[in-house]
Design goal:
Structural class: alpha+beta
Number of helices: 13
Radius of gyration: 35 Å
Distance between the termini: 26 Å
Length: 368
């Protein structure tokens, strides 16, 4: 069975690029919906705002109904977009496309049939709003902008019975502005993403420094105590192993402190290989003492882990000529399980008492 380990508390989850896009949609779709609804209401209330403009321009009943129905559809779809953005629902591009088709139809009617000059700037603003709100989301951007972008020159061709050269030049310049504007906005988004990743990396490194023992690369005592207290508060079942390297002071006296540091590093590697799952925590408690937290682990399974630790140390075969129990480095262990009503410090005290019994019994063993 593959043995994995987790030596530090779980770090904060880094926001992914997808999550940033979803957050951007949540924010920007509300603004785009506001633009859509504002213009739709202006068209729905045109007779109130512009002194019965339908009769002044002799707009027929059939056209009035089509425009009003389209604008009601835009309002409903805009509200749907806001809801979909908040709930991160799929299908946003499809709704944007339908909304754009409704605007495109209204654009064509108002320019070719009504010949309303104010229609041009309104629909250009819609295209720019779509580009600004959706520049980081290519599917949504194309779905909303392309129908309108096509509808305007088509309306111009229908209005002028052919291609208007001046309009063509203006439209090419406008298209260039759209493309360049999107490129600039996207470059800002990419820069923000890179800086976010750099900040998250820095945070994770600082978190590692705060929660990791620099010598053994295991969790430090503070981190272990946090994990333990959280487990107690949440009622998670666990068993704790407290381990002490036998006669480590004699090891340091014999081989020197640098060799002692190397010994502790090798012992820590044995512990990491001996635990069962990524949820298990290996930590340096202090000096030559380590604490291993085994989640969802009854005492009999914890004893198997203790046996694996013993076997791992024998395989590592770190020489210890000054030891009184073996020619190689060994360890004594105390095992204590979670007991309802006991705090983390009390469970550690129980494991420490069990460790003391293992030492009293001759070391190089464990005790419950």
């Amino acid at each position: 069975m593959e043995k994995r380990h987790n030596t530090t508390p779980e770090l904060a989850t880094w926001p992914s690029r997808k999550s940033m896009v979803l957050h951007g949609l949540e924010m920007n779709l509300s603004w785009l919906a506001l633009v859509n609804v504002s213009f739709a209401l202006m068209l729905l209330l045109r007779n109130t705002l512009f002194n019965d403009i339908d009769n002044v321009l002799h707009i027929g009943q059939h056209l009035r109904l089509m425009v009003d129905t389209s604008m009601l559809g835009v309002i409903i779809l805009s509200a749907t977009l806001v809801l979909m953005g908040w709930r991160h629902m799929a299908g946003i591009s499809a709704v944007l496309f339908i909304c754009s088709l409704l605007w495109s139809a209204a654009c064509y009617w108002l320019i070719t049939v009504v010949q309303l000059p104010h229609a041009w700037p309104m629909f250009v603003v819609l295209v720019l709003a779509g580009m600004t709100a959706l520049y980081f989301h290519p599917a949504g951007l194309l779905a909303f902008v392309v129908p309108l972008w096509i509808a305007l020159p088509v309306a111009s061709i229908a209005l002028n019975q052919g291609v208007n050269l001046r309009f063509g030049v203006v439209w090419l310049v406008f298209t260039l502005i759209l493309v360049c504007g999107r490129f600039i906005l996207l470059s800002w988004f990419e820069e923000a993403w890179r800086r976010n990743q750099q900040n998250q990396l820095l945070i994770s490194r600082l978190d590692a420094l705060a929660h990791q023992d620099p010598l053994t690369k295991t969790a430090n005592r503070r981190a272990m105590e946090l994990v333990l207290e959280n487990a107690v508060e949440q009622g998670k079942p666990f068993t704790l192993i407290m381990l002490d390297v036998d006669y480590f002071k004699l090891y340091n006296d014999t081989y020197g402190h640098q060799a002692g540091d190397e010994c502790l590093t090798r012992v820590a590697e044995v512990l990491k290989k001996s635990v069962r799952t990524p949820d298990d925590v290996v930590s340096r408690y202090g000096g030559e003492e380590f604490v291993v937290i085994l989640f969802n682990c009854p005492a009999n399974i914890a004893e198997k882990v203790a046996l694996r630790i013993q076997d791992g140390l024998r395989t590592e075969a770190i020489p210890h000529s000054a030891s009184k129990v073996s020619e190689y480095v060994t360890a004594s262990m105390g095992i204590a399980g979670r007991v309802e009503g006991l705090a983390g410090t009390e469970i550690i005290a129980r494991a420490d008492a069990a460790l003391y019994r293992a030492k009293e019994a001759g070391r190089d063993r464990w005790s419950l």
